[in-house]
Amino acid sequence: MQMNETQRVPASRDKVWAALNDPEILRRCIPGCQSLERTSPSDMTATVVVKVGPVKANFAGKVTLSDLDPPNGYRIAGEGSGGVAGFAKGGATVKLQADGPDATNRSYAVDAQIGGKLAQLGGRLIDATAKKLAGEFFDNFAAALSPPAPAAPVAIEAPAAARESWFKRLIAYLLRLFRSSRPSA
Fold it and tell me: Domain segments of the chain: what residues?
């Protein structure tokens, strides 16, 4: 399977590069990622839960970064085992190009191979799932780097006299309801 795509990220190239090398940001962005830990400057281990059609598997694997060219890009390769569900291995070449001072175009070319039960599901289902997961990752990644939304306006509290007046009106209304709902003697 192969995929190629370019995504625009609303952040500077340096910020995107830093995020692509931050295990915590990546863990939050990778769909189904349970853990992602750096074991050396170029290696990480990961545990990811993936569902492809009827097959759900926990993959444990290793990720290696190579051809590092900060902040322009790198090669990322990984392999994981999902037990009886099978295995997956592959890699991606990631390139970053500044798009003005506050945006970056991130392009990638992915090549992947799978085996076991996953390989028996059929190419269309696997390709569709891979594209869906890649889309979720890039949406999560862009959201993680986007500036925070402006805070909602703070409600101005009513003066004590207005609150007290409102409370008295509410009590009077409830008493009228209570009296009108009582059976007459």
Answer: 2-145
pTM above 0.85, yes or no: no
Per DSSP, the residues of 102-159 read T-EEEEEEEEEEEEGGGGGG-HHHHHHHHHHHHHHHHHHHHHHHSPPPPPPPPPPPPP
Chain-centroid distance, C-alpha 87: 23
- Considering the domain delimited by 2-145, tell me its CATH architecture: 2-Layer Sandwich (3.30)
Run of H or E residues at 20: helix 13-20
pLDDT tens, 5-43? Answer: 898 988 999 999 999 999 999 999 988 999 999 999 999
Q: What is the mean pLDDT of the chain?
A: 84
CA–CA gap between residue 1 and residue 127 (Å, rounded):
7
Label residue 110 exposed, middle or buried (CB < 10 Å: 0-12, 13-18, 19+): middle
Show the tokens assigned to 16. 């995107």
Answer yes or no: are the C-beta atoms of 76 and 96 closer than 8 Å. Answer: no
How would you label 130-169 residue by residue, b for 16+ Cβ within 10 Å and e otherwise? beebbeebbebbbebbeeeeeeeeeeeeeeeeeeeeeeee
